[in-house]
Write a structure and sequence with these properties.
The protein is mainly β. The chain has one domain: TolB, C-terminal domain (Neuraminidase), CATH 2.120.10.30. It is built from 1 helix and 27 strands. A 5-stranded mixed beta sheet has the order 1-24-23-22-21, with no helix packed on it. The chain has a 4-stranded antiparallel beta sheet with strand order 2-27-26-25, with no helix packed on it. It has a 4-stranded antiparallel beta sheet with strand order 3-4-5-6, with no helix packed on it. A hairpin with a 5-residue loop joins β15 (150-155) and β16. The chain is globular, with a radius of gyration of 17 Å. The two termini are 35 Å apart. 48% of the residues are buried.
Length: 295
């Protein structure tokens, strides 16, 4: 893709005292890769005070990173946190691959929803709130092109859980623009567009952006113009596309090829570099847009 390069710098780095050695036995038994960085950062989200929260998927931790880049452990628990979203009441919601959707309150994780029609999820990945407080999330599991059964759900403010799609090969990051969901279909190496009809159903689902190379798109964020920032593992880059899906910028990691997720704060973009245990930062030409995950 012909995209203007943008360079990053390290904003924050997991300190040596918080880096774990080895790999969790359960992670190895599940066929997951080793974690040489001593963490696996994902799911960046800012609170109203400007603090950044990220997860450590490998070791079941949530970190709080202050404006100076200092790390603090918010919680360490028996789980696999993957994505984060902040509710308007201050609760931090967690997409946990192992336990489903959780919320964090008073230093404890509490279950929100873990099953659909009494069946456990495959393994949820990312989540976002809309302006009304409805929660959208992806259920990725280990789905792929041979098993394209990944799902997208909406948990309404009325407590009702609805399945919006059940045919996506590895649904990963997601963003919401009005009544349109954009979902990273990792194993299809594409970003899918899911328009939501007035009755709540997804209609005319299709491919919005087709990528190549790497292991497929991961986390995403949306800028003020409606453009998409897409983390592309193995490329060591975040692509920034216009609202039409045109490639505009390539934000290059200064640390490793394994970039997993992205968040905007004003005119800066923050990237979780899981290969190095760092959060990267870069100024971007388009202003950041406050998403509904910060109600």
């Amino acid at each position: 893709m012909n995209a203007q390069p943008i360079e990053t710098q390290v904003f924050a780095e997991v300190p040596a005292r918080l880096r774990k050695s080895g790999t969790p036995p359960e992670r190895l038994a599940a066929g997951k890769s080793a974690t040489p960085a001593g963490s696996f950062l994902e799911g960046p989200v800012f609170d109203r005070a400007g603090n950044l929260y990220v997860v450590d998927l490998a070791w079941g931790r949530i970190f709080k990173v202050d404006s100076k880049g200092e790390f603090d452990v918010v919680i360490e628990y028996d789980g696999e946190p993957n994505g984060l979203a902040l509710h308007r009441d201050g609760r931090l919601f967690i997409a946990d691959h192992k336990h489903g959707i959780l919320c964090l309150r008073d230093g404890k994780t509490l279950p929100v929803v873990s099953r659909y029609h009494q069946q456990a999820f495959k393994g949820v990945n990312d989540l976002i709130f809309d302006s009304e407080g409805n929660l959208f999330f992806t259920d990725q599991g280990v789905t792929d092109l041979a098993d394209p059964t990944g799902c997208v759900y909406r948990l309404g403010v009325d407590g009702k859980l609805a399945q919006l799609a059940n045919c996506i090969p590895s649904p990963n990051g997601l963003v919401l623009d009005g009544r349109t969901l954009y979902v990273a279909a990792t194993r299809a190496n594409a970003v899918w567009r899911l328009p939501i009809a007035p009755d709540g159903r997804v209609v005319r689902m299709g491919v919005f952006i087709q990528l190549s190379g790497g292991r497929g798109p991961d986390g995403m964020a949306m800028d003020e113009s409606g453009g998409l920032a897409v983390a592309h593992p193995d490329f060591g880059a975040v692509w920034i596309f216009s609202h039409r899906g045109e490639p505009l910028y390539r934000v290059n990691s200064c640390k490793s090829d394994l970039v997993t997720n992205v968040a905007y704060k004003g005119n800066e973009i923050y990237i979780t570099d899981s290969g190095s245990g760092c959060v990267l930062r870069a100024k971007v030409p388009t202003p950041g847009r406050k998403l509904f995950s910060h109600l």
